[in-house]
Amino acid sequence: LSEGAQFREFVLGVKTQRDLDRLANDLARDRIVTMDRDGVAHSVDDAGIHFGLRVSQRKPPKPPTVVPRNAPGQRLRVDRISTLYEGAQPWQMGHIVFFVPDTKVAEQFYRQRLGFHLSDRYVGGAGVFLRWAQRSEHHNLFLLKSPTGKPALHHLAFAVRDQHEVFGGGLAFAKRGWATQVGPGRHPISSAYFWYFQNPMGGGIEYFCDPDFVTEKWKPHQYRVNRFSEWHLPKGIVQVDDDKMRPSLATAKAIERAQSAMKDKTA
What we know:
Blueprint: E1 10-14, H1 17-27, E2 34-35, E3 41-44, E4 50-55, E5 92-100, H2 103-113, E6 117-122, E7 127-131, E8 136-137, E9 141-145, E10 152-159, H3 163-175, E11 180-186, E12 193-198, E13 204-209, E14 213-214, E15 221-223, E16 231-232, H4 242-245, H5 249-266
Parallel strand pairs: 1-4, 5-9, 6-15, 10-13
Antiparallel strand pairs: 2-3, 3-4, 5-10, 6-7, 7-9, 8-14, 11-12, 11-16, 12-13
């Protein structure tokens, strides 16, 4: 797709073979479409991004167990300690984001040719949030105006259970030496919590949770200012030595003895 990135193609699942044939035949009117031995139709969108279409073989994922949260007036977690995550276990890909030369051209292609729906938009062609169905998470595809005029992968996002897992997964990434791109933080558009890391294959990798779920009643917004984050840490969370964070019983008693000895000397 672009110099320095390892991205080649993203594949979209469709419901039936009839859907696949209809889309492939329509695309073949004005671009090359090839079919491989696995039944995947390959082509290139109007932004220069390679994509595929195949009949989905994905089984509905079993929703992960989420520990209930307590809130004022709502005590949902009773006599139970909340989960401490030492890493993250993503349960699905949430969305993919590309830089494109012209967001209006790209939006038109995905909405008119592939049936995506508009969720929100930055005016002036700065960016557009699209979703694959009327009833869906806020966005599955986000297209940004390319600063270079060339298409490029921006990031790939993985959904996790909750804010605790975003932080636990992010800390595990950091402890392994992977650089934070930005975060943790919270998006005001989609309401999701996030943490981005540098992707060695190009672009970024995001953990996120708690996105908005929208339906046919949703009214797209036309944003005029950059609303990337409500808040975020620019360089991640500083790692500290656990041994210094958690005094043991022996340490507490030693402190008490030292304090007692100081009182005796003073007396």
